[in-house]
Write a structure and sequence with these properties.
single chain; alpha+beta; 5-stranded antiparallel β-sheet; 4 helices; globular
Length: 185
């Protein structure tokens, strides 16, 4: 009923051409209803944008952590060249390359946000260069019908959340607790 009401509200807003202001702590509701979202932190507006901008291009660690599920890693810049920013994270034992990066603020903390649904998971390493690819072991699995949620434990001991759509119904592509996997992004 709630989902149906949300779509009815969107249709009503478009038909009448009026502005709605919705205040909610329900992120799914905000993403469904909004054409623009404002994220606040301690009473201050810290980012305004479309749902896609807020989710995919958060301007701060707070916004990345607040909106949706994410894996956050503190990173340091090793160098910058024509390929992009070469980064290092103590929890990730791999070479990090960020091709679409802006120049970081000198001395500022940098955070890498990896969304669970954007991580690719495979039994074998698929990137010969080794950039943005790390090995781990599946520590836990939660099957929820349309999707499965995995907790992958890296060599550092850090857990990484991964989600995958359950599109194969024969179970042939299923991964289980204890399986060694590679994560790539």
């Amino acid at each position: 009923l709630r989902e149906a009401t949300q779509f009815e509200l969107k249709q009503l807003q478009q038909a009448l051409g009026i502005t709605f202001v919705v205040v909610t702590h329900d992120q799914a509701e905000a993403m469904t209803l909004a054409t623009r979202i404002g994220v606040m932190d301690q009473g201050r507006l810290v980012q305004v944008g479309t749902p896609r901008e807020i989710y995919e291009r958060p301007v701060s660690r707070h916004v990345a952590d607040f909106v949706g599920s994410t894996n956050l890693f503190e990173v340091a810049v090793e160098k910058s060249d024509a390929d992009g920013l070469h980064l290092r994270a103590t929890d990730l034992d791999c070479a990090l390359l960020l091709a679409e990066a802006t120049t970081p603020t000198p001395g500022g903390a940098l955070w890498l946000a990896l969304r669970p649904e954007q991580l690719l998971m495979a039994r074998e390493q698929t990137d010969e260069r080794g950039h943005n690819c790390v090995a781990g072991v599946i520590g836990d699995v939660a099957y929820q019908g349309g999707a499965s949620f995995y907790q992958v434990v890296l060599a550092s001991g850090r857990g990484v959340k991964v989600s995958r759509a359950n599109v194969a119904h024969d179970g042939a592509s299923s991964l289980a607790r204890g399986d060694r996997v590679w994560l790539r992004w």
